[in-house]
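Q: What structure does this chain adopt?
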Amino acid sequence: MTDKSHVVVMEYEAWFGPNAVTFQQSSAMPLLQSGDMQAVGGGYDSADPAVIQQHVRWIESMGMDAVTLDLTNNVSCIFNSEWFVKKYVKNCTPSFRSGNQNIRDNDGNIYTAWTALGTRLKIIPLLGGIDGNVLIRDRDGKTAFEKEVEYFGARMKKNPNLSVIYEGKPLMLIYLGAAQDPHRQDNPLWFRLETFVASHPEIGEKYAFKLLAGYLDSQPLLWATKGKPTGPIEINPAYGFWSVGDRLNPRCKKKFCPYYPTYNVVGSRVENFTASIATSGQKG
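A:
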């Protein structure tokens, strides 16, 4: 990307299948179906070539330029050793671990499948920066965050035409979750992740990283201008957070209310602006 680029990105979750019960509690069953999912109640398998091809056609027809490929949850459970998960990740049961590793494998398969399809679409890995345990070293001396970067990095190297280039380097996003502590002296996880990348040139010099946070519309300590907003909210460039989802305006009592998404300015341009249908309240 350059200062003249215009990139429209959509989140993509290859979370489904194979042979997994994933859609059975959903309010709507997807129109696309895969044979291996029928025995568990239906739905599609994210590794099904026909499903992947149809998704690509739809995303292209919507005018998208890229997707954020989501592998944000349970990163240590996916990438670290059994010794680590027994010590630090109590909910990482064998079946839970296997299911999450299926998602990892589905994400990896997207690179191979999209290259074979010759799509113009790009892929931006969406990494997990939610849990503090992603920066605890495993027995091999590496953190789960490093291992996730290496996992996507290997696929980006093998499929270079699928990467978005930001400031001369392939771009990766780090998802931080909802509420962010703005005080660096508290050593919040976002700051530790920034520090980790800066202190590890083997990844910091190879990839560009941006921090992606949710619900910045209700975190005034992160805003560039204080007070009650009457329109879109600029995020303080000192943090550099990109938004991932904003709520409806909670003070509006009308039937149809404007919502105030957040945005970032770099130089003279808006760098990040998120259009979202997220409507959850501040307390859930």
